[in-house]
Amino acid sequence: MIGTAFRKKVPAMRMSSSIKKINHSKIYHMIYRESKGVSKQEIMRRLGLSLPTVTQKLEELLAEGLVQDAGAADSTGGRRARAFSIVKDARLAVGLDINQDYYTAVLVDLLGSVICSKRQRFPFSQSDDYYRQIGLAVLELIDSVNADHQRILGVGMGVPGLITKDRERVFYGKILGFEGATCREFSKYIPFPCVFFNDAKAAGFAELWNRSDLTDAFYILLSQHVGGAMIRNHQVELGENTRAGEIGHMTMIPFGKACYCGRSGCLEPYCSSAVLSELAEGDLDLFFRSLRGGDPVKKSAWDEYLNILSMAVNNINMLLDCPVILGGSVGVYLEEFMGQLRSLARDRNSFSDSADYLACCQYKVEPIAAGAALPFIDEFIRTI
Ligand SMILES: [Zn+2]
């Protein structure tokens, strides 16, 4: 599971917790890791537990609705044992990705999969109308899968702003002009626990999900806005003032393009997805189709984009010496251009002839919204 820096702190298990509770937890987590289901005999063997203990704990997990009988287990011969698997939708969490022109709402299950999502064009405003609209969106999404409201763990709201450590207030929000906005006002029409998340850190958390290989890395969100998440010891670092990873405002070109932050030459105005989509009627997919079709204007813009991006990734690698993962709406298209980007990054590297530290994101489905929902899932699973 993922570390504590990003998710809400959960009370530590008391030392007096009984062995029974530990076995309950061990069995659930073992079943959780086995997507095809696992038999009672396998649980006994792998955890070194007795038949009565495993039987009793399985009955408890079945009664709690957390585990189900998944039918016959795979067998190499003889009588096929019953297999048990987790109930993926025993609990669900909602994530929102809130932007100037649209919002996206997703529903995530206990495996961290997005089971449904909805994107809606609706201009942001700090108004009762807007809060009512996102409240409706959350309820409609839950009702669309007939999920019992008791199963909803909470709603995470991914926003393009910097959030206080308690996740209750926006303390920097120039993009939406919502500095000082509180989670309380946003969640006025949402009858579940709600918290804010910074968009890039939420997306970085989604990337971490189920990736035990990622100990240290830097995740770059290349979407309508540029942000980052610094991953250390398998957790998203917040930094002293929750501003860690804000690479969108690293100076790349002295006295360069104006940035919304009020400075100039930041990474943001060079590597936002808008730089590309503005050349294709606001349609990023159309930009890449034209680029593949050989459009010279798109080619020139893309070359400049990759050139600046190669500077940023090289700077990050020089500073942190760790993998750099490219995500967000542009990251989804980057796989086919990785050769070109690696070559540019390699040319800037003072120490190595390779840029193998660069990788495309693996979590591609609505990473901001999903990443805002996943801390609720993570916390729930850890407490079982
Ligand atoms: Zn800036």
Describe the protein in words.
The protein has 384 residues and is α/β, with parallel strands linked by helices. Helices cover 37% and strands 20% of the residues. Strands 6-5-4-7-10 form a five-stranded mixed sheet. Residues 8-16 have low confidence and may be disordered. Keywords: Carbohydrate metabolism, Kinase, Transferase, Xylose metabolism. Transcriptional repressor of xylose-utilizing enzymes. GO terms for molecular function: kinase activity.
Feature tags:
37% helix, Arc Repressor Mutant, subunit A, 3 domains, 384 residues, Nucleotidyltransferase, domain 5, 5-stranded mixed beta sheet, 20% strand, binds zinc ion, alpha/beta, globular
Shape: globular
Overall number of domains: 3
The CATH class label of the largest domain is Alpha Beta
Structural class: alpha/beta
Mean pLDDT: 90
Count of discrete alpha- or pi-helical segments spanning 4 or more residues: 13
What is the fold-level CATH name, i.e. the topology of the largest domain? Nucleotidyltransferase, domain 5
Quaternary form: single chain
Biggest sheet strand order reads: 6-5-4-7-10
Query: Which segments are poorly predicted (pLDDT under 50) over 5 or more consecutive residues?
Result: 8-16
> What is bound: which ligands?
zinc ion
- Topology as H/E string? HEHHEEEEEHEEEHEHEEEHHHHEHHEH
The total of beta strands comes to 15
- Main sheet characteristics: 5 strands, mixed
Supply the CATH architecture of the largest domain: 2-Layer Sandwich
Strand content: 15-25%
Radius of gyration: 23 Å
Q: Quote the distance from N terminus to C terminus.
A: 12 Å
